[in-house]
Design goal:
It is a single chain. With 298 residues, the chain is an all-alpha fold. Helix 1 crosses helix 4, helix 4 runs parallel beside helix 13 and helix 6 runs antiparallel to helix 13. The two termini are 21 Å apart.
């Protein structure tokens, strides 16, 4: 008998992708108003607080990791928290939030390519076409539609930072996939964030020594709280609940909404304009990801 889906689960999934899309707008604001490592450190301090409050409110335990799990948490924190956010904030300081969201949307396809290579798995025609579609879309976004300029190195530093963040997220995903078995999800996320936050705090301390504590207005604190509490803690909890009920395959399909919300919010809140290359390239990226996901689950 087919399991009934609790009321509101799909709504929470859509809100989760909305929160993730909004992190590009909040990140863009913070990247232009305060030191990058400090912004990332404060973001995850809020996230740790949110996860602690969630654990206390629901009565769930945080299990102390064993030696192997500490290694996993450190690897996850170094890749998905430290390296990803270093590239994320550095990139958003130079690249429009809408472009960054479209570039990050290619990470599932890059992850698939890496997994296929590691497993030496055969490619289906549908997978190949989806990967090529996403690749063409990413090239279109990065090059601003000037493919000849791309061949001559006309790619900004900001795009390279965002691409570095994508690579870091791919590493994070692979570590979780291959090494995190038996590590309870809430505990794994909490201790991975803890390790990543401690790593971020080292360069953040250097920023404070060099520049002093920045004058943060309420907008900056609101952006930090949004990214930490909604974009990290609550989004993780809701997404994990959805995966437990409807499975990872169906839940993952909703992540295609992240660049859509990222672009829409960038236009609405930041006044960014969309050129044809970014819009067309973004559509190709999302279409390629959807096509590949469909190939993987049919």
């Amino acid at each position: 008998m087919k399991q009934a889906v609790p009321g509101g689960l799909y709504l929470r999934l859509v809100l989760t992708t909305f929160f993730w899309g909004g992190t590009f707008i909040a990140g863009r604001f913070l990247a232009q108003s305060m030191p990058h490592f400090l912004a990332a450190t404060l973001r995850f301090c809020f996230a740790l607080l949110g996860l602690l409050l969630y654990a206390l409110g629901t009565g769930q335990r945080l299990y102390w990791p064993d030696r192997r799990q500490w290694g996993v948490a450190l690897a996850l924190g170094a890749s998905g928290i430290f390296a990803y956010n270093a590239g994320f904030f550095a990139g958003l300081a130079q690249v429009a939030a809408s472009r960054a969201a479209l570039l990050v949307a290619a990470s599932p396809v890059i992850t698939l390519c890496t997994v296929q290579w590691l497993n030496r798995a055969a490619w289906s025609a549908r997978q190949i076409s989806g990967v090529l579609l996403s690749f063409c879309g990413a090239v279109l976004v990065v090059s601003h539609g000037d493919l000849a300029g791309l061949l001559h190195g006309a790619v900004g530093q900001g795009e390279l930072f965002i691409f570095g963040a994508v690579v870091a997220w791919v590493v994070y995903t692979l570590v979780m996939r291959y090494y995190a078995r038996g590590f309870e999800a809430l505990s794994m996320t909490f201790f991975a964030i803890l390790c990543g936050t401690l790593l971020l705090a080292v360069p953040a301390s250097g920023e404070l020594v060099a520049t002093g504590w920045p004058a943060l207005g309420w907008q900056a604190w609101l952006a930090l709280a949004y990214m930490g509490l909604l974009g990290t803690s609550l989004a993780f909890v809701w997404y994990s609940q959805a995966v437990a009920v409807i499975g990872a395959a169906r839940a993952t399909q909703f992540t295609n909404l992240v660049p859509v919300f990222g672009v829409l919010l960038s236009v609405m809140l930041l006044g960014e304009s969309l050129v044809w290359s970014s819009l067309g390239g973004g559509l190709l990226v999302v279409a390629g990801v959807m096509w590949v996901n469909r190939a993987a689950h049919t």
